[in-house]
Amino acid sequence: EPRVFSGVQPTGNLHLGNYLGAIKQFVKLQDSFPCLYCVVDLHAITVPQNPVELENAIRDIAAAYLAAGIDPKKHIIFNQSRVRQHTELAWIFNCIARMGWLNRMTQFKEKAGKDREAASVGLFAYPSLMAADILLYRATHVPVGDDQKQHIELTRDIAQKFNNDYSDRIAELGVGVEMKVGDETVNGFFPLTEPLIGGEAPRIMSLRDGTKKMSKSDPSDLSRIALKDDADTIAKKIRKAKTDTEPLPDTVEALAGRPEAENLVSIYAALSGTTRSRVIEEFAGKQFSVFKPALADLAVEQIAPITAEMRRYSSDPGHIDAILRDGGERASEIAEKNMVHVRDIMGLLNR
Ligand code: AQP
């Protein structure tokens, strides 16, 4: 049965990349699938967090989900730490995943920086927890930005190894489902989850450097458009965005080698729900002095209503807490049902 799971870390500075790469897809998918959208607070603590700021950041992400239009009655919005089974399954996956697999994860290398010895064990094991988040609900689809592709591949590797290691037991207990692996049909417990990597802008780049992804942790505030920015700030950041001096070309192919121009065109396409070639058709031969104000107007038009709704939700933290509590209870029910099977499959005596 198809089911969607995804999450965003409550680490502040929610930006246009998070919106276009992830949250905008979350909203779209809710019409077609049952969805769980998580605020992944246990991922946030893989690096130091201030407790008061963390609480507020959790509410902020929930407010963004709601403001973007996710329906918390039809779907599930919750914060990860409330559902204890995430950590339980993460431990189990730490015992399934191999050191070599995690050693290859590029996000760890980037986030740990030069002093790897000083990184938390949690930062290293982050992908096991992410696999647990997804597979705890036996989710089949995960909308994410392009940067998370490697972690979804690892999630599939973990699912496949678990299904293999315990294939006899899964068959004996009759808890598996038939699934295709290559040409073979196998009986597995965990699905081989597919990433859904969004449309025209799967990776939004920094406004200051078209070769780096737009990120919450970039020290330059001018590098990202935050969902909390007001109209003037958005316009200023787009005006100051780095570009080259050439006008826009007349084909998408000709954007190659011009990362900043390509990024702005992609943002325009994603915001207006069209393709990059349409944008190029409209602006071919135009200077950035023409394109940037058009992009700024579009960004403000799209983001301002979300920002206003986020503010409205944030003014009532009690309401957000109630939504997260209710979502947590509903998520726990699904999680526990699946964990009973996982414990049984593995022989962790719980009867
Ligand atoms: N630049 C981006 N373009 C497209 N999608 C992006 N995502 C993040 N940056 C971009 C997607 O947003 C979702 C939530 O991300 P996250 O907060 O869980 O983790 P992250 O990737 O670590 O976010 P940041 O902003 O890049 O934070 P830092 O600076 O801490 O590294 C994910 O689906 C992600 O793909």
**Helix-strand pattern, N to C?**
EHEHHEHHHHEHHEEEHHHHH
Q: Which small molecules are bound?
A: adenosine-5'-tetraphosphate
Distance between the termini: 27 Å
Mind summarizing the main beta sheet? 3 strands, parallel
CATH architecture of the largest domain: 3-Layer(aba) Sandwich
Top CATH class of the largest domain: Alpha Beta
Fourth-level CATH superfamily of the largest domain: HUPs
Spatial strand order of the main sheet = 1-2-3
Given helix and strand content, the structural type is mainly alpha
Q: Number of helix segments?
A: 14
As a percent range, the share of helical residues equals: 40-55%
The tally of beta strands, per DSSP, is 7
Question: What would the average pLDDT be, to the nearest integer?
Answer: 96
Low-confidence spans: none
| Percent of residues in β-strands | 5-15%
As for the number of domains, it is 2
CATH topology of the largest domain: Rossmann fold
- Cα gyration radius (Å): 21 Å
Function: Catalyzes the attachment of tryptophan to tRNA(Trp).
GO cellular component, one term: cytosol
Motif ('KMSKS' region): 213-217
Keywords: Aminoacyl-tRNA synthetase, ATP-binding, Cytoplasm, Ligase, Nucleotide-binding, Protein biosynthesis
